């Protein structure tokens, strides 16, 4: 079975306002405001560009944001939360 | 309705209809220095009515209604008709306003800059605004601050000041010449007395201000001041806004803009004098 791909909202689908450790994110499609902490805003930014598998996303986070301390399992858990919140779709 | 009265408070026009003369007469007296709605057209209609015709006379009790209604709202005795009118007007604002982000906060202004004070009922929003106004601040409102998401400015809503319990004596001492409504004892919110804002507050109610400080007061504790992190302030203000969700994107932009623009501070205070000193110290340090 091929790895699942994850996709974020379209580029104009979110309003993002960094507050402090939290970032406020307004999801235009649902009208819901989310408060996210690292690395969720970075995950969203990457997945808004294109759909990626878990491993590709892990690579991109390390490369673009220097977020190398996360494990594959931790990233999977964050992705599950974003899927649950309706911000990321599992394809 | 048998009796009616229209008034404009800040940018919002109201028409209040009533089955009884008494609440309208009180409103006419207390709001006599206010203008009518712009172009004569009210934004919201409020109705004070008897559920059954005979309840106009027998143990008269006031149901509140209007463009927006809460079906479970309990009726109030007629002697609390002024409170019924206030609650009904607040309800229309809370559920109906779309042009402004409605912040459940009192507000005072100095030099074009506003201090917003928000908190639960009993936190001292009304009392603090009233006491600050007695020290030369312009009173902008004791219940709602109207944030325009397009400009980031707050607009005044200087309705009658709803003083409660200990706040009544404190405000009367600060404003001995103020015109007051009847003392309403033992309402669902305790003792209540309405005070007419000072003439300057009414005359300048169309002048908005730039938010400069967001205060979360808490009454009944030793004096203490602590900064509120932006994310906490944001969450508390989404809860303190009655129409944040309804405004959607405009609400998000308005509120995140406000939080980014002004410092947020929580103050605990044991009495009015202490709170005034704390707020003015914060102001001086801006």
Automatic annotation (TrEMBL), chain A:
InterPro entries the UniProt entry points to: PqqD-rel_X
UniProt entry keywords in alphabetical sequence: Coiled coil
Coiled coil ranges: 44-78
Name the UniProt record assigns to this protein: PqqD family protein of HPr-rel-A system
Taxonomic lineage: Bacteria, Pseudomonadati, Pseudomonadota, Alphaproteobacteria, Sphingomonadales
From TrEMBL, chain B:
Keywords: Kinase, Transferase
Domain of life: Bacteria
Keyword Kinase in annotation: yes
Alphabetical list of InterPro entries matching this protein: HprK-rel_A (IPR027600), P-loop_NTPase (IPR027417)
Alphabetized GO MF terms: kinase activity
Name used for this protein in its record: Hpr(Ser) kinase/phosphatase
Origin organism lineage: Bacteria, Pseudomonadati, Pseudomonadota, Alphaproteobacteria, Sphingomonadales
């Amino acid at each position: 079975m091929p790895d699942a791909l994850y996709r974020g909202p379209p580029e104009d689908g979110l309003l993002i306002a960094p507050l402090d450790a939290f970032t406020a994110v307004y999801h235009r499609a649902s009208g819901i405001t989310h408060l996210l902490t690292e690395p969720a805003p970075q995950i969203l930014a990457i997945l808004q560009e294109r759909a990626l598998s878990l491993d590709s996303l892990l690579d991109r986070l390390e490369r673009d944001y220097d977020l190398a301390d996360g494990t594959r399992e931790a990233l999977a858990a964050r992705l599950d939360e974003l899927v649950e919140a309706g911000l990321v779709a599992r394809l | 309705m048998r009796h009616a009265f229209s008034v404009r408070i800040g940018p919002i026009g109201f028409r209040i209809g009533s089955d009884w003369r008494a609440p309208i007469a009180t409103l006419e007296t207390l709001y006599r220095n206010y203008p009518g709605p712009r172009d004569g057209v009210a934004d919201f209609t409020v109705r004070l009515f008897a559920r059954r015709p005979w309840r106009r006379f027998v143990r008269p009790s006031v149901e509140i209604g209007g463009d927006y209604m809460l079906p479970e709202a309990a009726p109030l005795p007629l002697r609390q008709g002024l409170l019924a009118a206030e609650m009904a007007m607040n309800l229309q604002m809370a559920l109906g306003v779309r042009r402004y982000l409605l912040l459940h906060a009192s507000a005072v202004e100095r030099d074009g800059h506003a201090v917003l004070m928000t908190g639960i009922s009993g936190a001292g929003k009304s009392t603090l605004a009233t006491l600050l106004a007695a020290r030369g601040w312009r009173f902008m409102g004791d219940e709602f601050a109207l944030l325009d998401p397009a400009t980031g400015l707050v607009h005044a809503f200087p309705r009658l000041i709803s003083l409660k319990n200990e706040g009544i004596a404190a405000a009367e001492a600060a404003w001995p010449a103020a015109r007051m409504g009847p003392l309403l004892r033992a309402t669902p919110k305790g003792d209540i007395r309405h005070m007419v804002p000072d003439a300057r507050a009414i005359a300048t109610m169309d002048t908005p201000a730039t938010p400069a400080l967001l205060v979360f007061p808490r009454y009944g504790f030793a004096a203490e001041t602590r900064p509120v992190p932006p994310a906490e302030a944001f969450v508390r203000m989404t809860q303190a806004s009655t129409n944040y969700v309804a405004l959607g994107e405009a609400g998000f932009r308005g509120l995140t803009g406000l939080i980014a623009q002004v410092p947020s501070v929580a103050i605990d205070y044991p009495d009015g004098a202490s709170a005034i000193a704390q707020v003015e110290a914060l102001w001086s340090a801006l």
